[in-house]
Amino acid sequence: MGAHCSRRAWHKGVDTIMQTAPEIAVTRWFNSEPLTLAGLRGRPVLLHAFQMLCPGCVAHGTPQAEKAHRMFQQTDLQVIGLHTVFEHHDVMTPAALDIFIREYRLTMPIGVDEAAEGGGMPVTMARYAMRGTPTAILIGRDGTILHHGFGQEDEMALGARIAQALG
Amino acid sequence: MGAHCSRRAWHKGVDTIMQTAPEIAVTRWFNSEPLTLAGLRGRPVLLHAFQMLCPGCVAHGTPQAEKAHRMFQQTDLQVIGLHTVFEHHDVMTPAALDIFIREYRLTMPIGVDEAAEGGGMPVTMARYAMRGTPTAILIGRDGTILHHGFGQEDEMALGARIAQALG
Amino acid sequence: MGAHCSRRAWHKGVDTIMQTAPEIAVTRWFNSEPLTLAGLRGRPVLLHAFQMLCPGCVAHGTPQAEKAHRMFQQTDLQVIGLHTVFEHHDVMTPAALDIFIREYRLTMPIGVDEAAEGGGMPVTMARYAMRGTPTAILIGRDGTILHHGFGQEDEMALGARIAQALG
Amino acid sequence: MGAHCSRRAWHKGVDTIMQTAPEIAVTRWFNSEPLTLAGLRGRPVLLHAFQMLCPGCVAHGTPQAEKAHRMFQQTDLQVIGLHTVFEHHDVMTPAALDIFIREYRLTMPIGVDEAAEGGGMPVTMARYAMRGTPTAILIGRDGTILHHGFGQEDEMALGARIAQALG
């Protein structure tokens, strides 16, 4: 219960912080008009990558991202949930995600990561070389990656990082 | 977050404890050969009705039923998970449930409640007049219903009820 | 945070379950007239040994014993809290315990374990060869020890043990 | 369980944020040389007022302040625990606090608020017009009060406030 979900595919990318956050590739949006990092340049962005059947996401990561979305709504922080399906594509469909979002009453913008040709790791997940879900990525006003974390984020530390990105 | 899922359909049955537990109607089993209450007569049974996208089930009810399954495995208690889909049938399919069971590492026997003609409340759920998910039903050795609870079960009380049914 | 408190003195007694529960030695009672195991013979007894400055007691054991006291109050289970001070006697006085009981709104009977001559492990704690606090001891209707556990008790298991002792 | 402790005395002060943080009055220090706000001017300060027998402090506030002390130790934030005894002075003595600090393994600097003549609310608590314990007060680099909260602090919000004071 509560386990994080590791991407079992071969780890193609680097895991360190990249200079500039690559653009996200989203094929469908919930709770929002389409968003791009380019369009959000100048604002800090918290990217929360999750899967609706990942226990560690449902128990910790996703409620935490939703909480950040609500807590900082009077700032210019943009929280984005990203449904990065890298396994079980046939059951974690956008239609299923739609129900998940409603049942869990999520109000943050949520995008569906673009499926890769031939399945496996979706496009944005691969661009960021994510290790699995949940992953939290904090992007600064200038578009650089400030934090890239896999697994459970400490709540006090996350609050501090967001404030630092805002200030 | 963590909300229970109420059946929104009209409440056809009675909500009080019925004399004898009606038979379960299951169309597919996971983690077990097919089970029937008739075949289990003489043993106490804990029936845990849930839906894989019901927040209160995922956070509380289902882990608790799995825990009871493991804790009392040296007794003759039979724990049965029952996937009682009464809404969003198109996304909470047996194939999706299969993944859910694996991701959450559930080992208790889990049956899919028989869909009703025309959708809505499935057959076993209707027979027991359940109000929603999660629901916990404890059945005695003689087949009578000892407890029928909707929502979060207190862990100490559940342990006591099971021991009482066993003793 | 939340650590149990081990008795650091030499371990004089045996740690296995003794045939018959030795009598408790209490010098002062809170929330109750004086109680003795002899006088309670025929009823199951849950003995919860704690210290008011033991983190594992305050966070888990003591609230759990109080919960059992309230949950089973319509049965003939007798819950007894036992303040077994084996260190820092000068600050965990009965006067301090009195305030602790009020601040934490404890309503179960609580007895102060009789101090040993020369300090160290108090009398009842030594008779039961307890390893530290919190300790939970469940005594059957016939006065035999059914369970003797040091540290955090699982809530479902404790509920089951109490029901078994009652049934 | 877990209740905050309200100061029952008459509420002499104002509850709003005062321009400048008044100096603290401490008669004994644990884990630190004596500290003063004057001496700390230029650094942000988190003041955590607590009582060792206040359930809401022991369960939430004090562990949270200790966590902040550890998390931000590479910054110039100064966390100070302040034992503000406003009731039960006879049992919450400095000797008892000493044991509490050791049992809960607290490493942040902790000062004993100066007792008022005639008992009741101690000096620093009165200067800040605190409503009870736990209270969290965040003081900026310039000595002004940035936040004054009574009760349970949200962890994400506290992290954000500290980062804001630091940045």
Describe this structure in words.
4 copies of one chain form a homotetramer. Chain A has 167 residues and is α/β, with parallel strands linked by helices. Chain A has 5 helices and 8 strands. Chain A has helices at 37-40, 55-71, 94-103, 123-127, 155-166; strands at residues 5-6, 26-30, 45-50, 78-83, 110-113, 132-133, 135-139, 145-150. In chain A, the strands form 2 sheets. A 6-stranded mixed β-sheet of chain A has the order 2-5-4-3-7-8. In chain A, strands 1-6 form a two-stranded antiparallel ribbon. The longest helix of chain A is centred in the middle third of the chain and has 17 residues, at 55-71. Chain A is globular and about 40 Å long. The N and C termini of chain A lie far apart (37 Å). Chains in contact: A-B, A-D, B-C, C-D. Chains C and D meet through helix 2 and helix 3 of C and helix 2 and helix 3 of D.
